[in-house]
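Recall that a protein's primary structure is simply its ordered list of amino acids. Everything else, from secondary elements to tertiary packing, is in principle encoded there. The following example makes that idea concrete.
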Amino acid sequence: MRLISITFTAIFIISFIFYLYFSSKRKTLKNIYSLGANLITFVETFIVTKLLVNIFGNNISKTFSSFLLKEEEWVKMDAATDFVKFLSTIILGVLIFYLIYVILYFINHLLKRIIFKKVTKSSYKLYEPKKKDIKLVNIGIGIVSFLITTFAILFPFGAMVKVVDYASKRTEYNGPSEFYILTDNAVLKAYSYVGSEPFFNNVTVMNDKKEINSTRELKAMLSIVFAFLEAKEDNTKELDTVIFKEELTETYLVPSFLSELCSNAAARFKNNQSFLGVTLDIPTDKSRQLYLDTLEVISNWERENLISDIETTFEIYSLLEDNNVKDIEDTDSLLIAMEKDEFSEELFLSLFHNQDFKKLIPSFMNFGVDTLLETVNISSSGNYVNTIDFSKMTDDEIRKEAQIFSLALRDIKQISNLDASTVTYDEINKIANDLNRIKESKLLSDILYNVIYKLLEAI
């Protein structure tokens, strides 16, 4: 890619030198006419492109999205369709601009030749400067003319330089090597600072979609992708949730697209269906129900709550990682973590502070008790949690419930390890006192209390 970048720069410089050379040799009036033709072509192309994009943009982008999104999963996703329409409108705008520019360029320069031939010598002399200044004037006109022409060709690339540069700085990730032609090329970087981005936005957005800013949407999407790639390639770095929050807050299309993508994928995975060719192996052990409940929550994600939902997801992921839990299927590590008050408190509070995720508190509790009882060979009922209105609970109450939950897990494990011949009165008395605390729980049902009580009686 660096070789392509170097070759492009060399071609640009050689073209610039030749253009200035021929401009210096031509008559001044001819250079002025050429500059006028280039400027008129540029303005006309912009006007015609905007007109055509607004007339045909919706129909063409709709056809294009229907052609690309044939799979059943995509057809049901309105936001995905809107996002593909947005991308297709960008491509359409740039292609129409190029096509119209080439056509008008040849037409206007043909007219320039015809008009120039009809200009008399006397009228030409009106434009002819003094002999010593002719070459400098011609070179100056040539520079302006060359810049207008090359801007018309390179403005999409200049805009993309801004997009990639923004995403790289947001994440400290330089992107794949294919992007080097954008990030390392001096010519394209120069054009990115002379209005490429606003011009690109004007050409690629329809008048009825003024709330959409093309490069703003692309910057957000690329920043999110780069954040994932950065975390994936560098294990010492955590996924930057701030990037997600800020980028999703400032964009129009991306939040709807991501929320719909996640919710549709989760819904299909929950029903043992593939999504865009990807399948999810749902566990068959005690973690299965927790998996299904989590997928159910994600399947209801909406644009309005997407940022808080993603933040909560990252919080839980980070919490699991900090406690050496690979994922939900890593039941042994997860149980060890759940026996700690600090872990359960953080987990429950993270879930509780999110309107969607608080539904998973009972799921985690049932999973912990079910899995632990299975390890000590005790049949489980599958539901040890009372139905409760979480909106009436406070942070302190949730903290207390988390502590009692961890206490119950520790007691079950301790009782299963007790030997009737060596057990002491203090050990029995401690567990009996713990049972009194478990009895106070609003969440844990009497079923669990009775299970622990019977375990204690059997010693």
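The CA atoms of residues 164 and 179 lie 8 Å apart. The radius of gyration is 33 Å.
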